[in-house]
Specification:
heterodimer; A: 363 residues; alpha+beta; Uridine Diphospho-n-acetylenolpyruvylglucosamine Reductase, domain 3; Alpha-Beta Plaits; 3 domains; five-stranded antiparallel β-sheet; 19 strands; B: 482 residues; Uridine Diphospho-n-acetylenolpyruvylglucosamine Reductase, domain 2; Vanillyl-alcohol Oxidase, Chain A, domain 3; seven-stranded antiparallel β-sheet; 18 strands; 19% strand; globular
Chain lengths: 363, 482
């Protein structure tokens, strides 16, 4: 394994090796698939914030910069990355977050990592430093390479520098929780909330033994929260309010996946609210722990069994998955399971153009 | 193969009324909203089904004929300018909303669906489609996808690409692919994210899955008039520093205000050097609390007049003036060039001062209307096309403004795209390597480079320069250039 500290050194490294597997700090180990003959490229020393002007709502940083470091810096100016990049406390980097394409519960309010990335520099299969996008919040020039690299899992090359949009952080938060006795009731509450003109920071469903907990987070000026919580009570029924440290702890545990035991596999499954019932039915007989996040747009599964079983289940349901954390699972390059949605002519052409010698992993 | 063989193939796919070859029919397709460029295509086809689009693209590929997919032709960058001897695929008849699912908050639409029609269809469910380019009455979703259209709400809500969930696309050799899906989340590379904004170079989007949002419950708007542009710019900085996130922040300068006043009598404060409009939107109770902060803040920015509309009609009057500013400029000048530069927001004041100086040095009037929240400038360079050389002089001022935006760390286009108009500036924004990688990608996706040939990349085929001036629809006040 090699550690590099400049984008130019990454270029040299890529040119010098036939097969290169980029990695950050390894907080999402199942996404790193080092095949025989491949060389790991450690980007964790390629770190540091290069530009940050709070008045612009943007910053630029090297890809190996830990998310937590950036969040601390933004926090000093009352700003944040609203999509709650997951696993920040464990050391997740900006580059890893983009390459994995992961967003936390806060993506409900303003969008996910794809909606906040503005610019990128990465090293392509020819070992060239390429730049796409820009450093301003609005830009329509050139192909949208920043978006392409979201979820790219290293297969288009190592990301070395990123520019993000940031937003002002809500001054105060509160969370409203209700216990829905059944899944259909929980889904109905969720439907009413997503259809209503409410500005919710997060909207998650957490199925448990006694039903499904509906978790709704509000953010904004402290003086507006009591009335907004009262409105939620009217829409959702009687529930509990979490403020301050309790609110913070709840959502931090969600985005850090502390609820996933070490021996289980954490799997991300994109879906829509209409697909939740079928997935729940398929998982009923298993001891998988589930969380439906961002208004039913993604399922997070803590899967205690062999991953190939889930691979099959998801394929049957027409769903894709990404195995992120847990015991290693051979035969699933890059952690992809279920329906493989990247097997189309556009994908193979983009790969052929950007990595013609297949220097980077094929997933 | 011959042109005759190509046309014969098309005639086997399209009935006579939907295969246009007569010069009088082709004239309507010679240009888009960037009327300075004009080219007559060889033929126009008007498909009504996806299969017909695929067949037309395949015929182009077989006969190696370039094609341009086109919606309503509102591109301000010449993005839908035809290629001489090429085919125009007119998509306006593919205008069905295939599915509207309020529970899933999405709509699946054909590319010829008008932007505003999506919002109209969603409205009974309390939903809307957020991207709102000012041509939304007439521009199509296919064009919005190709050029990643914006609007006045991009800082908070993003551009078209932030609202597209999936795309069924016909690649330039006729292969059909499904990119993305129905979820906001995905695994694997963001293929549909790359496709949006491709300027027609990757093929034709034939089905687009759009995300719908609940219509904001409440809007609170404030209009502030300033004696200097600097004060207005400082006010924007103060709003940004306050931690508020307005849905829209717009500035108009003196010349733009005069035009708007003459056109729609918006009754803006008299004598203003700049007017700032800030609007908060969202959940009523949240907006109400934030608006109190905003008002106090604006009171301290040195505005000589502050107005807060108390009725929806008053609010609409404010916006009507703003929206009409572009077409209204036509009252001040027979012709104008609209630009779409972006600068870092903190450099707005500097950019405007330099534009003022350039305007004075060139002796050409420039009106400024811009999306202050995201640093997107729309300088309107006024000229009279009947005077010899006037257009060229305006172009040379436009070039200097474009380079100014690049120098200040911004971009040559915020929402109009590169198209024909800004191709020559791409090397100022991207390195030779960046451009080469884009070109390699273009060539692998489209092996014959037949999809919208000549756009985005510098040094494409040069079309004939012809007439300049507002688009006929713009003269009629139906579309505007922002």
């Amino acid at each position: 394994m090699t550690t590099l500290t400049t984008p130019e050194a990454v270029c040299d490294f890529v040119r010098a090796h036939t097969h290169v597997v980029p990695r950050g700090r390894g907080t999402k180990p199942l996404l790193i698939d080092v095949m025989p003959g491949a060389t790991e490229l450690d980007l964790s020393a390629l770190r540091g914030v290069l530009e940050y002007d709070p008045g612009e709502f943007t910053f630029t940083a090297l890809a190996g910069t830990p998310v937590a470091e950036v969040e601390a810096l933004l926090g000093q100016q009352g700003q944040y990355l609203p999509f709650d990049p997951p696993l920040a406390k464990r050391g997740a980097t900006l580059g890893g977050t983009v390459a994995a394409g992961l967003s936390g519960p806060g993506r409900y309010r303003y969008g996910g990592v794809r909606d906040f990335i503005l610019g990128v520099r990465w090293v392509d299969g020819r070992g060239q430093l390429v730049h796409g996008g820009g450093k301003v919040v609005k830009n329509a020039a050139g192909f949208d390479f920043p978006k392409l690299l979201v979820g790219s899992l290293g297969q288009l090359g190592p990301i070395v520098e990123l520019t993000f949009k940031v937003f002002p952080r809500p001054r105060a938060y509160a969370t409203y929780l209700i216990e829905a006795p059944t899944l259909p009731i929980a889904l109905d509450v969720q439907r009413r909330l997503t259809a209503a003109p409410l500005d919710l920071e997060a909207l998650d469903l957490a199925p448990g033994p006694r039903g499904v907990q509906v978790q709704v987070r509000l953010g904004g000026l402290a003086e507006s929260l009591p009335a907004r919580l009262e409105r939620l009570r009217g829409l959702m029924g009687e529930g509990l309010v979490r403020h301050g440290a309790e609110d913070t702890a709840l959502w931090e545990s969600v985005r850090e996946f502390v609820w996933v035991p070490a021996e289980a596999t954490l799997v991300k499954v994109p879906l829509t609210p209409a697909r939740i019932a079928a997935l729940e039915a398929a998982l009923e007989q298993t001891s998988a722990v589930r969380r439906y996040s961002a208004g039913g747009q993604v399922a997070w599964l803590s899967w205690p069994h062999a991953v190939d079983v889930l691979d099959h289940t998801l394929e049957q349901l027409g769903l894709s998955g990404l195995a992120i954390l847990g015991p290693s699972a051979p035969g699933m390059p890059g952690g992809l399971i279920g329906v493989r949605r990247s097997r189309h002519a556009f994908a193979s052409r983009v790969k052929a153009a950007l990595d013609p010698a297949l220097r980077f992993p094929e997933v | 193969m011959s042109a005759r063989a190509f046309l014969n193939d098309l005639a086997a796919i399209f009935p006579k009324g939907r295969l246009l070859t007569d010069p009088s029919q082709l004239a309507a397709y010679e240009s888009d909203a960037l009327t300075a460029y004009r080219t007559t295509p060889r033929a126009v086809v008007l498909p009504q089904t996806v299969d017909e689009v695929v067949a037309a693209v395949r015929a182009c590929h077989t006969h190696q004929v370039p094609f341009v997919a086109r919606g309503s032709g509102t591109s301000l960058s010449g993005g839908s300018l035809p290629v001489a001897e090429g085919l125009v695929i007119g998509l306006n008849r593919l205008n069905r909303i295939l599915r509207l699912d309020p529970a899933e908050r999405l709509a699946v639409v054909e590319p010829g669906v008008i932007n505003l029609a999506v919002t109209q269809a969603a409205a009974p469910h309390g939903l809307y489609y957020a991207p709102d380019p000012s041509s939304q009455l007439i521009c199509t979703i296919g064009g919005n996808v190709a050029f990643n259209s914006g609007g006045a709400h991009c800082l908070k809500y993003g551009m078209t690409s932030n609202h597209v969930l999936g795309i069924k696309a016909v690649l330039p050799d006729g292969e059909v692919v499904q990119l993305g899906g129905e979820s906001l989340e995905s695994v694997g590379p963001d293929w549909h994210g790359l496709f949006v904004g491709n300027e027609g170079l990757f093929g034709v989007a034939v089905e687009v899955t759009l995300r719908l949002l609940p219509k904001p419950e409440s809007f609170r708007t404030v209009l502030a008039a300033y004696r200097s542009m600097q004060q207005a710019g400082d006010a924007v900085a103060a709003v940004v520093a306050s931690g508020l996130l307005p849905g829209a922040m717009e500035i108009m300068d003196r010349l733009a205000l005069q035009a708007a006043e003459a056109a729609v009598h918006a009754n803006y404060p008299a004598g203003a050097a700049a007017v700032l409009i800030v609007e908060l939107d969202g959940e009523a109770q949240a907006v109400e609390a934030e608006f109190q902060h905003l008002r106090r803040l604006i009171e301290r920015t040195g505005a000589y007049e502050v107005r807060v509309p108390t009725t929806e009609a008053e609010r609409q009057t404010i916006w009507k003036g703003r929206r009409s500013a572009f077409s209204a400029v036509g009252r001040l000048s027979p012709d104008y060039i609209v630009q779409d530069g972006v600068v870092p927001r903190s450099k707005l004041g500097q950019a405007l001062a330099e534009i003022d100086a350039l305007s004075a040095r060139h002796g050409i009037r420039v009106a400024n209307v811009f999306h202050a929240g995201d640093g997107n400038l729309h300088p309107l360079i006024l000229f009279d096309g009947r005077q010899p050389g006037a257009h060229d002089r305006a172009e040379s001022l436009a070039a200097e403004i474009m380079r100014l935006c690049i120098r200040l760390g911004g971009s040559i286009t915020g929402e109009h795209g590169v198209g024909m108009e800004k191709r020559t500036y791409m090397p100022d924004l991207f390195s030779p390597v960046d451009l080469d990688v884009m070109w390699q990608l273009r060539c692998v996706v489209d092996d014959l480079q037949i999809a919208n040939r000549g756009k985005m990349f510098p040094g494409g085929e040069a079309p004939a320069l012809g007439h300049s001036g507002p688009h006929p629809l713009e003269r009629a006040g139906i579309i505007s250039r922002e």
